[in-house]
Amino acid sequence: MFRTPDAAELACHEEHLAREGYVIVPELLDAAGCGTVLAAMQALHAPETFGDNDFTGFRTKRVFNLFARTRALDPLLRNPALLRLVRSILGPEAQLSIASTMEIHPDETPQALHRDDAYFPVNPHPPLVVNTMWALSDFTDANGGTRIVPGSHRQPGPVDPAAASIAVEMPRGSVLLWDGQLWHGGGANRTGEPRFGVSLNFCRGWIRQQENQYLSLDPALVRMLPDEVQKLLGYDICQFVGWVDGRHPMRAIVPEVRARIHAGLHRGTPAR
């Protein structure tokens, strides 16, 4: 399903991500994997309508809360190459912040350039967010490939709106990663076909996730997921952050433990 980049390639990608604020890992997901994931995402998109403003796109479809809806993305979330690059910026306790789809249809206009960590009003700050975009169709300048301003993650203020941004062009199966401080935006689709991407965005383990994973997913579902997926969804401890009544959060969603906590009983007290 996945290509396995060697250590030299990954080291080169790490250096480029840190220096330029973005990197493209080409064709990480094979054709069969792309087909499987795309079919699952298209099924979710079938009943959806277009956005209702310039930022979300009047000709763009989006679906959120993906890990409550499908298991098709679990392998992408756990991919070792992806996690190595994300953790090279955010550290070992990086967690999923939000997962969504972005299907840009013909005649969509360009999205305004923006930063994805702007909702954290702390400046200056170390990298707090690393976002990823999996290309389930080819990304080109013509079909709305994400536009970026390389190196702008090091710029303290906003970029000049007239500044030259470049379109990310990559074949399907590739993944784009970028620092949340990088100025970027969706491109205009001037073709007759939609451009389809899946965005898995990460943040440091000690800040709040953009999408509330704890309320988005049924605890019964979370208990069935692989340990690594549980941790990446935020069911983990980051230093001294994340405890529930002194317990690891995965212990706290076991039914009998939850009942005891909600009843206000102490650990070791039998639930009535």
TrEMBL record:
SUPFAM superfamilies: Clavaminate synthase-like (SSF51197). InterPro entries: Phytyl_CoA_dOase-like. Signal peptide: none annotated. The keyword Ion transport does not apply. Keywords: Dioxygenase, Iron, Metal-binding, Oxidoreductase. It holds the Pfam family PhyH. The keyword NAD does not apply. GO terms for molecular function: 2-oxoglutarate-dependent dioxygenase activity; iron ion binding. PANTHER family: PHYTANOYL-COA DIOXYGENASE DOMAIN CONTAINING 1, PHYTANOYL-COA DIOXYGENASE DOMAIN-CONTAINING PROTEIN 1. This is Phytanoyl-CoA dioxygenase. It comes from Sphingopyxis granuli.
